[in-house]
Design a protein that fits this description.
Length: 377
């Protein structure tokens, strides 16, 4: 086969699909619009020496996430349980703080990865060899079916160009695909409407993280768990490393994307630190480092429809492509996972399914790659 297989998106799903294809002996062109790998996975460090804090996903659930567990073992990425020992604090709308002595142990217990979730995507990336050509800062703007291939319209900092691929696995969230990609021949309206109605999990969310010289809340008998009806954060947790020596807190910002955009990130950080002082005491006023990651302001994660807050975990369904495309293009990404949609585990499940369908289609491809009527220009 002369053209490579293309994988679009180097988030967890795209990286894993690429690695599986490489293991099956394929040449792969991995195309990513951002400069970095990871997509929604992003861990940052206050300093070169500090531990990395998760600005995207932090948790996985052993026993419920078999692929993640297996992969971490295989790649030698260590994990540790989420700290939740000690009392929790709840802030009422009136600003009153209530202490709950019993800790909120998550059930089932959640675990975090040493070095942040980015350790997992970096470990997969490190497995890729010369059979994989990685193109960062390259956006797929469209896909056209050609007689024996798919033509990808690409844009990188040097301009626009196109690339033929024998087959394509697209891991871009469905809403972004429907919103941003030109498809020729067009996909049916009903399919595009379904894709636009499929929320990009957590894309409307923002996270605040703050690193401290020590876990002063633990010394005061607090777990670091907090809930607030006042905000701007609605839910807070300990984000220290596995030893507890490198101390940090993180919170999900409950305030809406439009409120966040209105006040700006500097003011949001100021409000979040003031909230931590209310909940955990004056030592919270002086973080070593703090950051806000507003995913709603990331056009390579959040589609326009994702800016409306989502208060439930959607049921995700695998999209069925029109038959002309079905042997050439496969959708992956966590929103295509039948059992774990939205989660890291789902990004792996969807990648596995897409790669296995692609592999199964190979013997039939010659049959299906006869010129299509609409391509005979
Ligand atoms: C704040 C937050 C907290 C979360 N917490 C958890 C958690 O604790 N546990 C959990 O299991 N899950 C959690 N999640 C969900 C988890 O992050 C996702 O399930 C997972 O990262 C999805 O991976 P993916 O590869 O499917 O998609 P993505 O990571 O979105 O990857 C898609 C990739 O496609 C790229 N792309 C987009 N458009 C184009 C284009 N046109 N051309 C080329 N490339 C393109 C993007 O840049 C991106 O790299 C959280 C998510 C967020 C945002």
């Amino acid at each position: 086969m002369s053209h490579p297989i293309a994988v679009v998106g180097a988030g967890l799903s795209g990286l894993y699909a690429t690695w599986l294809l490489q293991q099956a002996g394929h040449r792969v062109l991995l195309i990513e619009a951002r400069e970095r790998i990871g997509g929604r996975v992003l861990s940052q460090s206050p300093s070169a020496a500090g531990h990395r804090l998760d600005l995207g996903p932090s948790w996985f659930w052993p026993g419920m996430n078999p692929r993640i567990e297996k992969l971490l073992k295989q790649l030698g990425v260590a994990a540790f349980p989420q700290h939740s020992r000690g009392a929790a604090v709840v802030e009422g709308q009136d600003g009153k703080i209530h202490k709950h002595q019993s800790s909120w142990e998550q059930s089932p217990a959640s675990y975090r990865m040493a070095g942040g979730t980015q350790s997992l995507v970096e470990a997969i990336h490190a497995q890729l060899d010369e059979r994989v050509h990685f193109k960062p800062q390259t956006r797929v703007k469209g896909m056209q079916l050609r007689p024996h291939a798919v033509e990808l319209s690409l844009q990188d900092p040097s301009g626009e160009w196109s690339q033929l691929a024998a087959q394509v696995i697209v891991t871009v969230p469905p809403r972004l695909l429907a919103q941003d990609m030109a498809l020729e021949p067009a996909w049916p309206d009903a399919l595009l409407q379904d894709m636009r109605a499929t929320p990009t999990w957590m894309a409307g969310q923002a996270k605040f993280v703050a690193a401290y010289p020590k876990a002063f809340w633990r010394e005061a008998g607090l777990s670091g768990n907090g809930m607030s009806h006042r905000g701007p954060m609605s839910e807070i947790h300990d984000a220290s490393d596995g030893t507890g020596q490198s101390a940090a807190l993180f919170g999900f910002v409950g305030a809406s994307p439009s409120y966040r955009a209105g006040i700006g990130q500097e003011e949001l950080q100021r409000q979040a630190i003031a909230q931590l002082v209310r909940l955990f005491g004056p030592e919270a006023a002086q973080p070593l480092w703090s950051a806000v990651q507003d995913w709603a302001q990331e056009p390579l994660t959040a589609a326009r429809e994702d800016l409306r807050p989502l208060s439930y975990h959607p049921m995700y369904e695998v999209a069925q492509l029109p038959s002309a495309w079905a042997q050439r293009v496969w959708l992956a990404g966590t929103e295509q996972s039948p059992n774990y949609g939205g989660y890291l585990e789902g990004a792996l499940e969807a990648a596995e399914i897409a790669v296995s369908h692609l592999q199964r289609s190979l013997p039939n491809l010659a049959l299906h790659s006869a010129p299509l009527a609409h391509d005979e220009e």
